[in-house]
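Incident log entry.

Two folding requests arrived from the same account within the same minute. Monitoring flagged them as a possible duplicate submission, but the sequences differ. Recording both here for audit purposes.

Request one:
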Amino acid sequence: MELEDLFVIFHLLGVAVGLGGALASDSMFFGALKDMKISKTEMRFLQIGSVMVWIGLVILIISGYLLFSLDPDKYLNSPKFLAKMTIVGIILLNGLFLHKSSIPRLRRHVSGHLPSSDEFMRKRPFLFTSGAISLVSWLSALTLGALHKVPWSYGEITGAYLSILLLAGLVANLLGRRLIPSR
């Protein structure tokens, strides 16, 4: 086994853990909305999912750097790699937002009736948009990583990604309004 193969395996592990954490968190959040409350147990699981996302992201960044170090010229001339770096940057920024804003907000509303909270209802679009960004970004990173060759430019890849993000954000917010209707 060559060093590159080992780094690729490590990289795939990071994607699996991060995407798994994002999928689990989103599923748990939507499951918690059935009774319009987030229990202490549900909050603990949401926090575990968040930790999984961070662990996956750290593994992804470290292994990505190790892969990059093997042939920097190849990667710097790859639209696929540059688009993946943009997406990983968005995952990181979105993760910081979720960790600093959304998770503490949800923690403050544990056991409370979510639609009864003016703060939660005002911030609801940010929560649903952030979840959509996370899911689309992790799936996009996985997709780009799985493709050996991508015949598109950086602009085409990121344009498609941003279009999908916009659509996912709209759908997530429409779904959010149906799941948690205004009073």
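Request two (distinct sequence, not a duplicate):
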Amino acid sequence: MSSTVIILCCIAFVAGFVDAIVGGGGLIQTPAGIILFPHEPISRVIGSLKIPSFTGTFFAARQYLKKVKIPLPRLLLFTSIAFVAAFTGSYCLTIVTNAFMKPVIFIILVFIASYTYTNKNLGLEIQSTHFKFKWYKGALICLVIGFYDGFIGPGAGSLLVLAFISVLGFDFLQSNAHAKVVNLATNMGSILLFVLKGSIMWSLALPMAICNALGGFLGSKMAIAKGNKFIRSFFLIVMIATLCRLGYDVFLH
């Protein structure tokens, strides 16, 4: 196993751990992949990273669903919309260039990092215990963020958590449970497209998947048991370091 793959496996573990608690593991994993594979097409790098993202999210979702029950009609509605939207977004990704995507990803990372930092109570406190809402609001969230996850990806988990809290009034645990299930659907939609396009580096994706799954399992258990104040701080530190390195790659390299 090359040193690059080993580094990315370590990053995948951290990304899975962080993603299970506060969302946004792709904010750590995706820029790292782009930096370490600068000559690979963006679609090939992101396609490969969808495999570890899926496994980490799967084990995290299992833990959350032990505590949170999601009605079946809502589950089917959210996941079917998210699957199709992500498949479409990933198709769009395969037809754009690296020169276009790197600055776009950098800007998205800056926006989400800034929002996470300035909203200090995001996902840390119960916002509401009332979970009745108009179905189209949830459907629209899954459509927009599903497409975003397929097309760009980083921060989709954080955006889902944010949307379910601010738009639907979910608390931290409810929001994370819904976000993980929707994220599974978006990952599946993207993976299907990238498999059909032959855009997955399996020698990279499979070992990273094991590490991401372990991180997701441990992170979700900590989130349920202890909350996420410490992880939020850790997440922001990693984000800042990642932004600095990706910014150098985009603007100075």
